[in-house]
Write a structure and sequence with these properties.
alpha/beta
């Protein structure tokens, strides 16, 4: 009697990078995100990436794979930017932070880390003030006197880093790997 053998598929090693829409107070927020290959179970603290002036989550796209191996990583187009629904005119950083809080609530994310770039730093700081017990570590960019002063005033652990080298599609593979390693070290990932 012969035993039938089942084909066993190995789980993909790389995280799944996707895009989706999530509801917030201003309509839908377009999101770039990465989920660990294991499906997101037993993962590290999720990471929310908040982009600067253009408000586009795709700024963080080159970092989704290296950071998404152990945790879910979310990079939204801010309300009124990219493929997200429009926000009211003259929306403040605090109001954008509240809209991102709507996303956190809809996903039942109770504790997150933040990565913010340029004007996204003000939104991250507002979100930290609104939900201090839900924010773990913060990574703030670029490394300026004002950003370093803001980081020094936080009660959460903060790293100030310069992500400008990864900007504008001219991604240097070595620089991206260096930055991803620095972020993974600070965020407590292998």
């Amino acid at each position: 009697m012969s035993k039938a053998r089942r084909a066993v598929r190995a789980a993909p090693a790389e995280p799944r990078v996707r895009r989706a829409y999530f509801d917030c107070r201003y309509g839908q927020v377009h999101m770039h995100y990465a989920i660990p290959a294991g499906g997101g179970f037993d993962e590290a603290t999720p990471l929310l990436c908040i982009a600067g002036a253009a408000g586009l989550g795709r700024f963080f796209r080159p970092l989704l794979l290296p950071l998404g191996r152990d945790r879910s990583v979310y990079a939204p187009d801010l309300p009124g930017c990219g493929e997200s629904d429009p926000a009211p005119e003259h929306v403040t950083s605090a109001e954008l932070a509240t809209a991102l809080g709507d996303f956190l609530d809809s996903m039942h994310l109770r504790h997150i880390d933040l990565l913010a770039h340029e004007s996204g730093v003000a939104i991250a700081l507002a979100l930290t003030q609104q939900r201090p017990n839900r924010i773990g570590r913060l990574v703030l960019s670029p490394s300026t006197d004002a950003v370093r002063a803001a980081a020094g005033a936080l009660r959460q652990p903060a790293l100030v880093i310069d992500l400008r080298a990864a900007d504008a599609g001219g991604h240097d593979a070595f620089e991206l790997a260096r930055q991803a390693g620095q972020l993974r070290d600070f965020l407590g990932l292998a």
